[in-house]
Amino acid sequence: MPVQQQGDTLTLAHGKASTHLYLYGATIVSWKASDKRHPDESIERLFCSSKAALDGSKPIRGGIPVVFPCFGAPTHPEHMSLAQHGFARNSIWQWDGKTITDDDNSISIGLTLEPTPEISGKYNRPFHLTYVITLTDYELSTELHVKNTSTSSAYPPDNLEFQALFHNYIRAPANQVLVTPLKGLKYFDKMDTSFDGLKTEERAGVDVKIATDSVYENAPGNYEVTWPGGGISIKTKALKDVVIWNPQAEAGKKIGDMENGGWERYVCVEPGYVRGFEKIEPGRVWVGHQTLSVIHEERRMNL
Ligand code: TA6
Is 303 a member of any domain? Predict the structure, then answer.
């Protein structure tokens, strides 16, 4: 079976590749893939903390949490009752038991989320989300479809205003990682509380050797996350911003569900629409997409 359901988790398999996810938050917690130089040996490409809560009591610390409809603490008037990063990552999504594709090239499924009484109590907007997950030999794609299901024909239009982001925890030797190409971009430095404006990135390759929490605006959409011997590339559509986050030891030790030393084993590279708000009119659908690809490795990671 290319998709196996066990309780509230799903595992998709395609050749040597596999991915494992929770319906809670539609959170992918594992992606195993080989590379062309080591075709018989799949290794883990995502980081998930061994202390992550997997019982639905809080968002999962690792993998690919889905951030919607607000990034960080809410700032939009319609989001003010929501928790940091919104409700998509801690709501239970539905799977219809079907595959979208299941052939020689890929396996793909779609999960959905609609307003529940719990969501509507805090967020009184009509919406429909579909999350499409596609696995190929060397790639994992995620795609968030956001539909404004309002039927209002009022003017001005009853727009749905939101932010969305894929909070990728890429398994990587954090102290050797470089993220490119970010040079020349404006970014908001969440670590520098003394400065409220935008900085300009001067580095050709961005590292996370010190605690980093940077929100880059109007970024190119395609990135490489590399370390000596390997890496992951990320290609996106409709996600104009990208966040680079690693807390390093001092802040990392204060994260209750972070395993000891976990910050040494990942870098978060998070494509999203998070500076300002995306707006869609009633009946319209917005689609944000990313594809993570293994860069064929000279050396295997040992993390
Ligand atoms: O995306 C980066 C960030 O917003 C950081 O500021 C950091 O707090 C991180 O997300 C984790 O947030 P969480 O709510 O999962 O603890």
Answer: no
Q: Give 198: exposed, middle or buried? Use CB within 10 Å, 0-12, 13-18, 19+.
A: middle
Catalytic residue numbers? 167, 270
| Residue positions forming the annotated binding site | 61, 84, 89
Range of the domain at 123: 3-295
Is residue 172 a contact partner of residue 46, using CB atoms and an 8 Å limit?
Answer: no
Which one of 49, 70, 71, 84 would you pick to mutate in the ligand 1 pocket, going by the greatest count of ligand atoms within 8 A of its CB?
A: 84
Ligand 1 pocket mutation pick from 187, 244, 268, 274 by most atoms within 8 angstroms of CB: 268
Q: 85: Cβ below 6 Å to ligand 1?
A: yes
**Any domain includes 217:** yes
ipTM above 0.85, yes or no: yes
Number of domains composing the chain: 1
- Closest listed residue to residue 243, CA positions, set 290, 293, 175, 194: 290
- The CATH number of whichever domain residue 258 belongs to comes to 2.70.98.10
**In a domain? residue 301:** no
Task: Give per-residue pLDDT as tens, 217-273.
Answer: 999 999 999 999 999 999 999 999 999 999 999 999 999 999 999 999 999 999 999
